[in-house]
Amino acid sequence: MKGMTEIVKTVSKLLAGLIFFYGIYIVLFGHLTPGGGFAGGVIISGAFILLIVANGIDEEKLRGEKEKAVSLASLGIFLFWIISIIGLCMGTFFFLNFLGKGRPLNIFSGGTIPLCNIAIGIEVSAALCSIVIAFILVKKGDKK
Amino acid sequence: MIYLPCGLLFLVGLSGILLKRNLIKIVISLTIIEYSLFMFLALVGYKQNALPPIVKSVTEEANYVDPLPQALVLTAIVIGLATTALLVALAVRIYEKYGTFDIREIRRLKG
Amino acid sequence: MFVILVLLMILMIAGAVVAIQSKDLLSAVISMGIVGFGLTLVFLVLQAPDLAIVQIVVETLTLIILIAAILKTTMKESKAEKSAVVIYSAAATVILLIILLSVFGNTFKDLPDWGCENLRMSKYYIEQGLEKTGAENLVDAVILDFRAYDTLGEATVLFTAVMGILAVLRSKGRKK
Q: What per-residue confidence (pLDDT) applies to B79?
């Protein structure tokens, strides 16, 4: 399938970069302003979907991207489980908040909460990208 | 009686599931039922003349809205998205095999 | 406050009725978008900015997925036939809805007043949240520290759903 015109392709390259950084900002500052892992993850996946829709569909390349997205999602959920099991290994209960609490209103505060936000952000963005790519790659009249 | 429109939205979605024959309409009605539940949970946790639940300063006491129902709704929104995506994927596969979205035709054809 | 809420809810109910009655599938999906974005405005009026951010982006993605599925298959709904089974089921549905509406009316009278403090645990979360976790967004503190099991289960459910979708939508493979 062909992509869109040249104007749309150029503008979407600029906008996708801005949306990507906005998503990273919402994930990182999740413990200070509204947002968090889930909202930021969905916004990051929106940047990638904009690039796919504006530049047309190239089947072989999209299949490679789908494999990479699935591996990233697995990495994200694996990190989240590791963070939760560390508390168990250190002799006390599940989900021990093992980092210090820091000063309030600082980005390095809140214990394990920023790490959990980053892991969830990676997982949600990769999972949603792979879902949308799988829907795009369905061929009409495939099986009968 | 502010909760009554939530009940009305729930009943609209329920009538869509029971009366419609198209698979995509059934998926849309299921999503409408979920939205009515999110609205109900967010209404339970509201306090009059209160602020959003972001702590402003450490020293003074202020009136904040409940954070607990908002946490429950946040989880439920993401799970609703996953459920809807899986249902739509199954519907696309059913269309490729039978050629129609109508649930009475799907019951009659075999194999 | 009360008036704005009631107006938004009436808008959502009207959008939902149009969504399930329309014959064209694309108009039905767009009307469902009205319900979703109206819900975002309700969340903003109820002082919940975190929920509004998540709802607006998730609604956009749901619309994208539904429209992608419709464009691959068909856009029209087949005509309904008039037979005895259809009339019987419509009458039974109307009776069930009237019974459920009266049950809702009786139950909602017994809930406590709207606008007062309802839940018991929230006093503890609001007063001790900043001290015990160090995070200022109380909703994130509740999700990722006080109730972290739920978040673990939710992330796993999302991952499992993605694996299910990739297994269902796999194309036919290499032809030998």
A: 94
Query: By C-alpha distance, which of C59, C28, C61, C27 is closest to C43?
Result: C59
Numbers of helices and strands, H then E, in chain C: 7, 0
CA angle C50, C55, C59 (to 5 degrees): 160
B92 touches A: beta carbon within 8 Å: yes
The structural architecture, per CATH, of the domain B4-48+63-108 is Orthogonal Bundle (1.10)
- Mean pLDDT over each residue of chain C, to the nearest integer: 87
* A123 neighbors A73 (Cβ within 8 angstroms): yes
What is the pLDDT averaged over residues B26-33? 95
Spatial distance between the Cα atoms of C59 and A102, rounded to a whole number of angstroms: 36
Distance between alpha carbon C14 and the CA centroid of its chain, in Å?
Answer: 16
Q: Distance between CA B65 and CA B44 in Å, rounded?
A: 10
Two tokens at A121? 């952000």
- Within a 10 A sphere around the Cβ of A42, how many other Cβ atoms? 25
Per-residue pLDDT at A144:
46
- What are the tens digits of pLDDT across the range B77-97? 999 999 999 999 999 988 888
Distance CA B52, CA B90 (A): 40
d(CA B40, CA C91): 28
Angle at which helices C84-109 and B4-19 pack, to 10 degrees?
Answer: 160
Of B81, B83, B84, which to mutate for an interface test with A (greatest number of A Cβ within 10 Å)? B81
Residue C146: DSSP 8-state: I
Question: What's the confidence (pLDDT) of residue C167?
Answer: 92
Task: Name the token pair of A21.
Answer: 């950084």
Report CB contact under 8 Å: A131, B97: no
Question: Which ipTM value was assigned to this complex?
Answer: 0.90
Q: How far apart are CA A56 and CA A44, in angstroms?
A: 20
Q: From the list C54, C134, C140, which residue is nearest A101 (CB)? A: C134
The pLDDT mean for chain B works out to: 88
Cβ atoms C36, C55 nearer than 8 A:
yes
Query: Tens of pLDDT along A14-48?
Result: 999 999 999 999 998 888 889 889 999 999 999 99
Q: Which candidate from C140, C149, C165 shows the least CB-CB separation from A131?
A: C165
3-state helix, strand, coil in chain A (%, to 5): 65, 0, 35
**CB contact (8 A) between residue B102 and residue C25:** no
For C1, the 3-state DSSP assignment is coil
β strands within chain B, DSSP E: none
The domain locations on chain C are: 1-75, 121-176
